[in-house]
Amino acid sequence: MVVGITISSPKSTILQNPISFKESNSSFLGGSLKGLSLPLKPRNKSRDNVGLVVAAARSTPSATSTDSTSLGRFYFNFTGFPFPLGPFLNRRTIRTEVVKGSIWLFEQEQALGFSSVSTNIRMTVIKLKTGGLWVHAPIAPTKECIQLVKELGAPVEYIILPTFAYEHKIFVGPFSRKFPRAQIWVAPRQWSWPLNLPLEFFGIFRAKTLKDEDLSTPWADEIEQKVLSSPEVGIGPYVEVAFYHKRSRTLLVTDAVIFVPRKPPQCISKESLLASAKNGLAVKLLSKGKEVPQEPVVDNPMNRQKGWERMVLQILFLGPSNLLEPNATFAQMSQKLIVSPIVKTLVFSKVPEKVRDWIDRIARDWRFKRIIPAHFDGPINAGGSEFLAAFAFLDDLLGEREFTWPSLSLIFTSLMGKAASYFPPDDMKTLSSLDQFLVSVGAVKKTVSGRKRAA
């Protein structure tokens, strides 16, 4: 999962129609570049993952498109500064049915620049009582992806950008051009860096703004929303909108929490996994002085698994203590509902009071039984107790909370959550050093709110 940066949304009347394929983009602490995005088509197979510990991740297979050898996966994307998001030419789409006739997940691979590090990016589609589709966090509109959406047999009515993050914003404009009658709704306080450009520059036109607990949205009877809109933690604010589909008791988030599966998502290619399994420069630097073998990487389940474990640790920690033998750290991070270390360190620890208010309102008002994030595994079988437990680190930042009588499940999951929010100090060194550097140069703030400040 990558934290991204995007743009403020002045409504321009100069540009009327999204004609150009060019889009400017930015990544977290990155910037904007002009790029070109052209769609075509991917396929999919169903997957069935089961995970226990603090929460369980599971998805129910559904029908997908035809054989995976057909065309339709081409999508040219070479944008994003300083790390453009791949794959640059080919994106496979996997569709999974979560709730029969009601909720579907669409997943594609997302690679970080020219590296071998990949994860998945997820779009969630909900069929409303009106018969139309509500699309959360669009992915690349390849021909395959669009065909898989059309196979649902319903019109796309609403397209939702639930965050300011670049890796989700980049696809909203191209996706909306495939469904020109759909309304576009975006998270508030959009921004981009190094140039703060209007949404129209990203190909996003006539967008409406999502508001906290807004009961006037066309979907309010079925889907509720709560906005996390923090003070600026650095060069811009962190904004994320959580949604609750009442009928299915499903919570949708973007980057707030993740559940790392033991096995790699199906959409990640074997080529990416094997490339990550190679003992390259990053492995040598983080080998703790051990001899690094240089044998060719054979395509087998063990090497694919090694590649996945290395990917996860590089995404979560930027530079874990040991990529040569990632198994132990991976075991601590996987199969748990957690807040990503990079989001926790660079964002949530800066605004603990805002985050606490947001997650408390979510757990108090919504009786969800599953969570669908935009990255890693999903859906996750988890409720409010597990969700709060993933944020147990906030208690340390905010000190003692007002005493209430907690439920036994909350006591148990809070204890589990303390373990889930613990990250090995050796693995946190690179991320902590980056945070200290960014604070020292003024790129991020030490804390924006909260009574306890880091030393």
Structure description:
The chain has two domains: 71-260 and 338-416, Ribonuclease Z/Hydroxyacylglutathione hydrolase-like (Metallo-beta-lactamase, Chain A), CATH 3.60.15; 270-334, no CATH class. Helix content is 26%, strand content 19%. Helix 10 packs parallel to helix 12. A hairpin with a 4-residue loop joins strand 12 (223-232) and strand 13. The chain has 13 helices and 18 strands. The protein has helices spanning 143-150, 166-169, 172-178, 270-277, 281-285, 301-317, 327-333, 341-348, 352-365, 384-390, 393-398, 408-420, 425-440, and strands at residues 22-25, 33-36, 56-57, 85-86, 94-99, 103-112, 118-127, 133-136, 156-161, 183-186, 208-209, 223-232, 237-245, 250-252, 258-259, 337-338, 370-372, 380-381. The longest helix is centred in the last third of the chain and has 17 residues, at 301-317. The strands form four sheets. Strands 4, 5, 6, 7, 8, 9, 10 and 11 form an eight-stranded mixed β-sheet that branches.
